[in-house]
Each structure stands twice: as C-alpha cells, then as structure tokens.
Amino acid sequence: MNAKPENSPGTAGGCLCGAVRYEINDKLRGIVNCHCSKCRKFHGNFGAYTSIKYTSLTLLEQRGLKWYQSITDETPNVYRGFCSECGSSLFWHPRDQKRIAVAAGSLDDPIKLETIGHVWISQISDYYKIIDDLPKYEKGWE
User: Fold this and answer.
1) What is the pTM of this model?
2) How far apart are CA 68 and CA 141, in angstroms?
3) Of 8, 24, 56, 125, which is most buried, counting CB atoms within 10 Å of its CB?
4) Are 54 and 99 in contact (CB under 8 A)?
C-alpha cells in the first residue's frame, strides 16, 4: 500500500461523536489562528482553521450538522457549522465566497500542516499571549 502524499486530497475529518463526517478533495492551506471574540466563544479559545474550496468538501455523514448564522459588521453572511449532538465546532463559511474554513482539530490525524499566521489579533483576549514570530493581522487575512 502506498502512503498518502503529504497534504494530499482525500483528507477526512469529523466531529467527536461521528454524527458529522466529511472528506476533502483539495490541498489544505496552512493553519491560521483566528483570535476574534466570535471564534473564542465558538471554540472555547482561538479558532485554528485550514481553508479549502467549498466544492471540494463532501459530507459523508451529516445527521448532526447544524449551521448558525454568525452576523457581525465585518462578516454579515457567515455561517458556523457544528455538531448538534456533541457540540464540536467544524466549519466557518462566508456564503458569498467560494472557500470554507475547516476547524483543524476536526481533521483526522496526521494532517501534516503548520500554523502560518494569526488573524484578528485586535480582539485577542488577555488570558494568553502570541509568542511566535508568524505573521499577525489586526483584522482578517490580507
């Protein structure tokens, strides 16, 4: 059997209880940590996301998948996908864009990705510090 090439299509993931499973047929972008107040509330800390073309996401099991419209001035048409059975946070999808962000923690190991930057550091909480030298953006990824 051949080993899957690093960062290749066919990556799978899902929620904690299995009520949501997905497969990705696209190369994954490196991980971006979002420190906005909405991600902190959704994840319980900052959100760590990769990004793919929406059309490359295939839902294999979706009985637990629910979408919450997360309306803000900066992102009025964003939906956050989560499992309604176990509470796992899974997706961040601006419906007017062709890409969807996938929560890195929901991917099956190994993902072989590295963190490449931080966004929304203007909203970082006071209980932690960013101590790496990766790119940092006051708002979204530029």
Assistant:
1) 0.87
2) 22
3) 24
4) yes
The model's pLDDT over 25-78, given as tens digits with 9 standing for 90+, comes to: 999 999 999 999 999 999 999 999 999 999 999 999 999 999 999 876 666 789
Residue type, 23: E
DSSP 6: T
The parent domain of residue 32 ranges over 11-123
Q: Please check whether residue 86 lies inside any domain of the structure.
A: yes
Tell me: the pLDDT tens digits for 75-118? 678 999 999 999 999 999 998 899 999 999 999 988 899 999 99
**Domain containing residue 37: CATH number:** 2.170.150.70
For 118, residues 6+ apart whose C-beta sits below 8 A from its C-beta are 32, 33, 34, 35, 130, 134, 135, 136, 137
Residue 105 lies in a domain: yes
End-to-end CA distance of the chain: 41
Work out the angle at residue 127's Cα, subtended by the Cα atoms of residues 125 and 138, and round it to the nearest 5 degrees: 30
- Is the CB of residue 111 less than 8 Å from the CB of residue 11? yes
132 belongs to a structural domain: no
